[in-house]
Amino acid sequence: QVDLVDAGGDLVQPGGSLRLSCAASRSILDFTTMGWHRQALGKQRELVASITSDGRTQYADSVKGRFTIYRDNAKNMMYLQMNNLKPDDAAVYFCNAHSPEGSRDVTYWGRGTQVAVSS
Q1: Contact, 5 vs 110, CB < 8 A?
Q2: How far apart are CA 89 and CA 36, in angstroms?
């Protein structure tokens, strides 16, 4: 069992920045991939960014060049630096982690942190 606690959401103006954090209850070196998803009101949850255990990253086209995902293995933390935020970025952001456990790949989720972008 893993607990993921995501935090850092806030209300910001367009063009502003936020850093989201995801704290894991055990070593994140156990996870093959970690990521950030978001879900806006009335829309499906979508992948924003992901990072593998060896540091390879992927981004949704809509956030490339503005968002950066990174992890601090020593602190069991993952982050999402979000710059030049736009109103379309407003959503609840969830971190997740994929953990190989025996013959299964288990996905854990945080509870979400709200990001609002408005002037």
Answers
A1: yes
A2: 13
Predicted confidence (pLDDT) per residue in 15-34, tens digit: 999 999 999 999 999 999 99
Whether the CA torsion 43, 112, 95, 116 is positive or negative: it is positive
**Chain centroid to CA 86:** 17
3-state DSSP assignment of residue 29: helix
Query: What phi, psi does 62 have (nearest 5°)?
Result: -70, -15
Tokens 């950030």 label which residue? Answer: 36
For the chain, give the number of residues: 119
**What are 82's two structure tokens?**
């979000």
| Rounded alpha-carbon distances, angstroms, from residue 79 to 44, 97, 101, 117 | 22, 13, 24, 19
Six token digits for residue 67: 């968002």
Residue 3 identity (one-letter amino acid): D
Enter the tokens of residue 25.
């209850």
How many CA atoms within 13 Å lie on the side-chain side of 18? 21
In the predicted structure, residue 111 carries a pLDDT above the cut 90: yes
pLDDT at 92 over 90: yes
| Token pair in block for residue 112 | 């979400």
